[in-house]
Structure formats: structure tokens, C-alpha cells
């Protein structure tokens, strides 16, 4: 079964974030969770029932829009699931910036996805050129086939002039254009997080010439803070940690050798002076 949810555009985005004077429904706005999704190797996920031997990743980044209307400390919760051989999963672990990458099979992965995305909420899926991501998500029988979705590539095309046909509003190009912090693209969890940040920046850009209420201006400030939040420091995988520890041990040994050589030189110099005085 394919994805049957409706696609929203700029007006839907503005309404969901409380940036329009006539939102579709206050309850709809306040109960919405924005869930950015990104797949690495989505076609492989679609074609295989078991992912044990399939190198793939699924990333989710979640923003609860209720936080925009309260004094809550808002942030984006980000997850990365990886499947495949140990080398691929270790690389995913090393690249993922926002926590620990989770290695899972297809069935157990689905259970965890359903736990982090509550069915009781109005879910709006978000993606950048989202077509393959929706197909892969539907192949998991995740229950999100009817969810509304937003495509940041399409929304960018609605509000920005296309100055270079070859760039086609790529994620890298748009993040750079909006000075959004990003790193280590093509890791699913990272891409989902940056896609959600981009969505917020596109929303801000879409109302930059609008007259906003005080409440809406506060929302814009929150959105900007979320989108421009600094990235976590890069982490070391177990192999890197062991390598760093070995380098530290080697450096301590080197320093000890240098100190011992200097001590021997001092002793020899003192002995030479003593002999000179005796003569």
C-alpha cells in the first residue's frame, strides 16, 4: 500500500506553526507533531523483508508544535536506525550527531518507531524530495500511510527563486543559503534533523514581509532559535577511543624517555664537572 496522505504547501506550514491569521483549526495546530523522515538506501528497504544484510538507515526528527505556544524549552528529538554489516553500522554510529545510532532488524525497528511517534497525535511528515522516503515508510507498514506531508524541496520552490537549475534546491544548497548549521549529511538521522530545521527557516522566510502579532513574532524567534541551535560536538567510536588512548600512552612513554635522557645528560655533566675540580 502506498502513501495516501495529502501534501501541504506554504499555507499549511504557516498554519501548523501558528503564523497565519486564519489557521485551519486551533486544535489541529496545537496537537500536531512535525516528524521529519529520511532513508538511506530506501529502495533496498522496500525490496527486502529482512534487513539483516541490507546496509540502510532510517532517521526521524520530531518537533512538538505545542512547545511553540508554551514556555517549554523546545528542541528537536532525533533518532537514527541502522541495519546491515558491522562496518556500515559503525560508520552510522560515528556519523550520527544527535545521540546513539540504533542497530535494529525490520520488525523490532517498527516497534521502536511506533513508540517514539504516538498514534494519538496529528502527525505531519516532513522530508526533502520525500517521494522515496514515503514509499519506504509505507513498506514498513508503519501506520503513517494516511498522514499529511510537507516536502521542503517543493516549499522552497514556492517561496524562493531558482537561480541555478543544476542545484534543484538540494538540501546542502538550501542549508547553506539560510546559514543553518549542518554537518555529516547522508546520515539519515542528521538529514532528518537538518530537513526539519530547514522547514522552520522556510516558514520564517515565508512571513518575513507579513505583519505579525506579538505572539507570532515570539513564535518566529523560537523557530529561529531551534533552527540555528549549535550542533553537538563530534563523537568518537570505540575504535577511535582506543586509538586515542593508545596515542596518549605512546606520548607519555615518549615524554618519559625524553625526561630520562635529560636526566642522564645532567648526571654525566655533573660527573664531568666533579672530575674537572679534582684535577
TrEMBL record:
A UniProt-annotated Pfam family: DEDDh_C
Q: Which residues form a coiled coil?
A: none
Report the GO molecular function annotations.
nucleic acid binding
Per the record, its GO cellular-component terms are: nucleus
Listed SUPFAM superfamilies: Ribonuclease H-like
Where are the residues of the annotated region Disordered? 234-279
Q: Where is the signal peptide?
A: none
Record-annotated Gfd2/YDR514C-like C-terminal domain positions: 52-200
Q: Where is the composition biased (Basic and acidic residues)?
A: 247-273
Which Gene3D superfamilies did the record assign?
A: Ribonuclease H-like superfamily/Ribonuclease H (3.30.420.10)
- Return the PANTHER family for the record: GOOD FOR FULL DBP5 ACTIVITY PROTEIN 2 (PTHR28083)
Protein name per Swiss-Prot or TrEMBL: Gfd2/YDR514C-like C-terminal domain-containing protein
For this protein's source organism, the top of the classification is: Eukaryota, Fungi, Dikarya, Ascomycota, Pezizomycotina
